[in-house]
Specification:
The protein is mostly beta strands. The chain folds into two domains: 1-71, no CATH class; 96-189, RlpA-like domain (Barwin-like endoglucanases, Beta Barrel). Helices cover 6% and strands 26% of the residues. The protein has two helices and eight strands, in the order H-E-E-E-E-E-E-E-H-E. It has helices at residues 9-13, 168-174, and strands spanning 25-27, 30-32, 96-107, 125-127, 136-141, 147-154, 162-167, 181-189. A six-stranded mixed barrel has the order 3-7-4-6-5-8. A hairpin with a 2-residue loop joins strand 1 (25-27) and strand 2. Mean pLDDT is 72; it is low at 9-52, 57-63 and 68-72.
Length: 190
């Protein structure tokens, strides 16, 4: 029978005059208690026993802990290294070199791009007949007002009235894919 389950055991533990420091270190659901100092007078009915070896969390006999479990990446002790989320990096303010309006469409067929890359429909890229490769361009839908910054990595489109061919992902950011093409404002960024 545990000391805490005996009737009146708490009554005898309260008047202890010596300093007893209990530090619970939660590690894998096991608690270890350290006692500092020796009690001067304890009744024989409430003796302090040393805890037995605590079962590990992988043991099938481990009892559930009253404290929430911690993930393995966050150590329980104060001396451990804590992981923190990276703070968002500020976006660069880029100067607008030139701008204009035109039609834009999207494409999503895997192919080789004009600058030698393999086309990725999930990347924020675009094709232009006149804008230099690796130039950043902010494209804003005139219908929705949403914008996206893309990198020019291909040549095209070869359809009259259109000046940009966006990747599927870039088009999806600014407008509904079901439209197929949309009027946009483009800002060539430095």
């Amino acid at each position: 029978m545990s000391n805490h389950s005996k009737p009146g055991a708490r009554r005898y533990l309260a008047p202890i005059t010596t300093a007893v420091v209990a530090t619970a270190i939660i590690a894998g659901g096991a608690a270890a208690i350290a006692h500092v100092g020796t009690p001067t007078s304890l009744p024989t009915t409430a003796s302090v026993a040393t805890p037995a070896a605590a079962p590990t969390s992988s043991s099938p006999t481990a009892s559930p802990s009253a404290t929430p479990s911690r993930s393995s990446s966050t150590p329980a002790s104060r001396g451990g290294t804590r992981t923190t989320k990276a703070s968002p990096t500020p976006t660069k303010t880029r100067a607008v070199v030139s701008s204009g309006t035109c039609g834009a469409s999207f494409y999503d067929e895997p192919q080789q791009t004009a600058n030698g890359e393999t086309f990725d429909p999930d990347a924020l890229t675009a094709a232009s007949k006149t804008i230099a490769f690796d130039t950043r361009v902010r494209v804003t839908s005139l219908d929705t007002g949403k914008s996206v910054v893309v990198r020019i990595n291909d040549r095209g489109p070869y359809v009259s009235g259109r000046c940009l061919d966006l990747s599927r992902a870039a088009f999806d950011v600014i407008d509904d894919l079901d439209k197929g093409s949309v009027r946009v404002r483009y800002d060539i960024l430095r």
